[in-house]
Amino acid sequence: MSYNKRPITSDDLKKINVVSEPQISRDGEKYAFVQKKIGDDLNYYSHLFIHHHTDDIPIQWTFGKVKDHSPRWSQDGTELAFVSNRSGMDQIWVMSSAGGEPRQLTAVKNGATNPIWSPNGKYLLFSTSLRADESITLVDENHTEDSDTQKEPVVVNKLRYKSDDKGFRKEKRSHLALLHLKTNEINILTDGDFDHHSADWSPDSRHIVFSANRDADEDVSNTLDLFIIDIETEDIIKLTDSSGVFSHANWSYDGKKIACIGHELKYKGATLNQVWVIDPLSKHRTCMTLKWDVQIGDAAISDIRSGHPNPGPVWSHDHKHLFFMASDHGITGIYQMDMDGEISAVHEEDNHVFGFSYHPQLDLFVMGISDPSNPGDFYKLNRNEKRKVRLTDVNVDFLREVHMSIPEPITTQADDGWEIHGWLMRPANYEEGQRYPLVLEIHGGPHAMYANTFFHELQVLAAQGYAVLYTNPRGSHGYGQTFVNACREDYGGKDYDDLMNAVDHVINTYDFIDEKRLGVTGGSYGGFMTNWIIGHSNRFKAAITQRSISNWTSFYGVSDIGFFFTDWEIGARMFDDPEKLWHHSPLKYVKNINTPLLIMHGEKDYRCPIEQGEQLFTALKHLDKTVTFLRFPDANHELSRSGPPTLRIERLNHMAQWFKKYL
Q1: What per-residue confidence (pLDDT) applies to 145?
Q2: How does pLDDT run across 503-513, given as a tens digit for each residue?
Q3: Does the global pTM surpass 0.90?
């Protein structure tokens, strides 16, 4: 352990500043960003900061017990629009670039998000939620909700009536609205019982491109199309043909092309994203990265960030290049591509780019970068110089105080010859000649990627004296299309073998690992695999399954994605082939489980609902096995990343207690 540094703890979650959403100003002299932290009252707060490139320290721009995010500079650079809940719900606010008090731009009944200035500076596009027959209305300042009013039943007529991030949808859909900045008039641009996403303006401010599924069967299909709306006539043109998933569209500066990210669902949810260029007049689209076997976008996972903000493919000013993020072998970097499809790295190092902003005239990037020993900071990079310059050190005090375990990359070989990539972290108190227990961590997805990024949970386990092994078994992103598709219809097959081979490899390679004290844990797919492992092996002395899947036959009907996910991933639907779903269900093998198991689950998890944990607990308890069930109130599937801070800390504390007891 580093001299004079202490081990990192679960409570240190309260000390970490998490930065995101860099936005370079129009003059290129500064950038805005969001900084989130847990307050003294153990609630999340986020504020805007402005950082001039010539200054050492960023200036905090907004204050208070609020959540401010989504900063966007006006076209003339004199104002900064953003989303804030300071009025009680998310609305669009604006501040002068010279500072001062924020001014509220919207006060719509169902809130407003995603502000986008028009290039001519006359409009502000934003998103709001409406029912199909509902018109936009303003907040009634005199109206207050009666907390004693009896709740009404929820009428359900659609398959997609709930989602893990929003709960019960109550028939509201996301629509695009236009604020006329001169008159403050607001009009809704989209209609119908559909959701509308990720919009961008045409250079002439006449048209908007956006993503939606407006098909008659949108409730059961998983396609996402691009559309163009004329803001004067409100005519909508469909650009794509309901054959895939297309989003994050950006117009070229000459208005002749639209770039986007998407795929044609060839391998369902395991299909690699590609960069596409579309002619808005002919609707002809070209896949620009067809020969590049790499996932476009940020596939890295961490427990301090939720979701993957993505600017999409960004055009150079001369519209000869596109810039985008991609994930490969545990790295998320920034890449450039010319119109012949030639790709090269703008930034590709052993770290994780979690966001960027690009200034086309200056050819300047501001990048958010994390690595295993740093939660994240901003760097600037001039594309011609190829040398990044650090701009911030937002966790300097925290990082000076705590010891970090630095992961060692490992590569194992599967029985069929495939190479499996991962990392091993030594215990923080590591000493030559001593032997230590090992914890195997398994990521969710499964189509995601452990990466060279900061992961608080892994550091906490290492600080408590465990070696920590985490790998990207087949099914993970970062290793090509064949690799990411390989676990489909084989859950618990070769993906299980990959993990067991990795454990064997580190035991045989590192003499400090005590093979008699092995633990395993994971969440979501990682929870499924934890359940599967202890039902097929007794080598682990302790297990913790988190937000897991135990029974695919019930998952089909209770998960917000179950009705298509079981078909996509297991290759069966409940009413066609329940035997196949049951064969791949860990619950089928529950009699084989002898490993002491801690089941952790959020009670508002609609992705892997808590009944999955309940079934497993009931069966194990009925069989008189060693099991404890830990239920987290008011927590959804994102508990470990963005759940209530007190519950996140308690979760880590219970993990520590369980492993300490049995390892």
Answers
A1: 47
A2: 999 999 999 99
A3: yes
Amino acid identity, residue 41? Answer: D
AA identity, residue 48:
L
pLDDT at 149 (0 to 100): 61
The answer to whether residue 84 is domain-embedded is: no
Mean pLDDT across the chain? 96
Strands 236-238 and 225-230: antiparallel
* Alpha-carbon span 309 to 194, nearest angstrom: 22
SS3 553: helix
DSSP code at position 399: H
Tens digits of residue pLDDT in 103-142: 999 999 999 999 999 999 999 999 999 987 788 887 765 4
CATH of the domain at 641: 3.40.50.1820
Instruction: Tell me what the mean pLDDT of segment 590-595 comes to.
Output: 99
DSSP 3-state assignment of 650? helix
Instruction: Let me know: does 595 contact 539? Beta carbons within 8 Å.
Output: no
Instruction: Provide the terminal-to-terminal Cα distance of the chain, rounded to the nearest Å.
Output: 22
Name the percent of the chain lying above pLDDT 90: 92
Task: Give the model's pLDDT for residue 214.
Answer: 96
Residues 278 and 282: their CA atoms lie apart, in Å, by 8
Whether 12 and 400 have beta carbons less than 8 Å apart is answered as: no
Residue 116 lies in a domain: no
Is 658 among the domain residues? yes
Look at the chain and report how many structural domains it folds into.
1
Residue 510's domain comprises 404-550+585-662
Catalytic residues: 524, 637
| DSSP of 241-310 | -SSSEEEEEEE-TTSS-EEEEEE--TTGGGPPPEEEEE-TTT--EEETTTT--SEES--B--SS--S---
